[in-house]
Every structure is written in C-alpha cells, then in structure tokens.
Amino acid sequence: MSTICFAQFFLYLAELNTQRRQNDLVKCVLICHMTSANLEAADMNNDGVIE
User: Fold this and answer.
1) Could you tell me if 27 and 38 are in contact, meaning their C-beta atoms sit under 8 angstroms apart?
2) What is the value of pTM for the model shown?
C-alpha cells in the first residue's frame, strides 16, 4: 500500500511540473509579438497554410 501511495505522490509531482511548464509556454506564446517571419517559419511544408 505504501508503494502505491509513494508512486502516486511522484505522479502528482510530475503532473504539477508538467502543468507549470505548459502554463509558462502558453504565457510566452501569448506575450510574444508575431511577425510575418514567425508565421513563415511556422509553415513547415511551404504550402502557405499553418496547421
């Protein structure tokens, strides 16, 4: 039983870390100013569409 609780604790810590990193990434994306160069770089296959 203690092994399961210990594993769940580490899972909870990993989820918290992942959520924090995802929130930081969202904030970074929302703060940065998009330029045409950024949009062109996002077009991976040069078809004029960003997916």
Assistant:
1) no
2) 0.55
